[in-house]
Automatic annotation (TrEMBL):
GO terms for cellular component: cytosol. Keywords: Amino-acid biosynthesis, Aromatic amino acid biosynthesis, NADP, Oxidoreductase. PANTHER family: BIFUNCTIONAL 3-DEHYDROQUINATE DEHYDRATASE_SHIKIMATE DEHYDROGENASE, CHLOROPLASTIC, SHIKIMATE DEHYDROGENASE. CDD domains: NAD_bind_Shikimate_DH (cd01065). It is an enzyme of class 1 (oxidoreductase). Its EC number is 1.1.1.25. It comes from Rhizobium soli. One of its GO terms (molecular function) is NADP binding. Residues 18-101 form the Shikimate dehydrogenase substrate binding N-terminal domain. This is shikimate dehydrogenase (NADP(+)).
């Protein structure tokens, strides 16, 4: 325990939050407490259980709270937060979702989206994979897939394939990517797994034992890096199949862990 930090909340403690519905499963309060401790901060991040219909009222209240520094948002509030913030970063605007908000001294709420950046940092740090100039296959076109696709494009991939059960959503994501990154080669050909340096699962397929595979595992080859956004189970069927083929793999949890310091920084808790 860092001696500089009181082990109780006092009148000086700075408050941060995480907003979700449900809330019981979130791990961020414990993980952020470790960051605050490491940086010697008198701060606490507490869980706020809020239903979508009352989200706007809560944000107004938090805006009035002078000792409040900001909050993290997760399911189901990420998209709705886009319109509830006073301003958002380009990342959040492009992805269409917010997962971290800073409360400015005047009460304004500034949102950003760090899922994708967390993914790329984890991927680079833990597998040594550098996306620049590479070809990446992303299964899914929901929140996680969208964030990872934009972050990979920002990190310089040359070619990106978006494969999704609902083709319209894959096409729509490809169109948004094309608008921001006109130089990027884009495809929605789900059958082209073999033709990529990086293969990513951004769908929720693999969370339940009865799920069908998110992509054709037989097309994986040992030279590919394979990543999954799913955190539970730690080893998804995709990661097991990839490891058995001799691929370098990237689990889901580091994507979240790599965001924690970025979130603390966006909320102004650390420099
Ligand atoms: N590691 C991290 O930091 C992190 C961060 C965010 C999310 N995640 C994880 O990423 C996963 C996806 O989350 P999300 O927020 O992106 O969810 P989401 O927005 O609801 O998107 C779900 C995606 O999965 C696809 N899908 C769902 N059921 C399917 C089925 N039966 N067959 C084929 N495709 C199916 C959907 O396809 P359709 O478009 O066709 O419905 C969509 O592409 C979750 O496991 C989540 O926990 C991890």
């Amino acid at each position: 325990m860092n001696e500089k930090i009181p082990n109780t909340i006092t009148g000086r403690t700075r408050i941060y939050g995480i907003l979700a519905d449900p809330i019981y499963h979130v791990k961020t309060p414990q993980v952020m407490a470790e960051v605050f401790r490491r940086h010697g901060l008198d701060a606490v991040l507490i869980p706020f259980h809020v239903k979508p219909a009352r989200l706007g009222s809560l944000i107004s209240g938090l805006s009035a709270m002078e000792n409040f520094g900001g909050f993290i948002t997760t399911v189901p509030h990420k998209s709705a937060m886009l319109d509830l913030c006073d301003d958002v970063t380009d990342e959040a605007r492009h992805i269409g979702a917010v997962n971290c908000v800073r409360r400015e001294a005047d009460g304004r709420m500034i949102g950003t989206m760090l899922d994708g950046l967390g993914f790329v940092i984890a991927l680079t740090n833990l597998t040594g994979f550098n996306p620049r100039g590479k070809a990446a296959y992303v299964a899914g076109a929901g929140g996680a897939a969208c964030a990872m696709a934009f972050a990979l494009a920002d990190a310089g991939v040359r070619r990106l394939t978006i494969a999704n059960r609902t083709p319209d959503k894959a096409q729509a994501l490809a169109a948004r990517l094309r608008h921001v990154h006109p130089e990027l080669e884009l495809s929605t050909d789900a059958g082209s797994v073999a033709d990529h340096d990086l293969v990513v699962n951004g769908t929720s397929l693999g969370m339940n034992p009865e799920d069908r595979p998110p992509l054709d595992f037989s097309m994986l080859s040992p030279d590919q890096v394979v990543a999954d956004a799913i955190m539970d189970p730690v080893m998804t069927p995709l990661l097991k199949a990839a490891e058995a083929k001799g691929c370098r793999i990237q689990r889901g949890l580091p994507m979240l862990q790599c965001q924690i310091e970025l979130m603390a920084r966006h909320m102004g808790a650390i420099e």
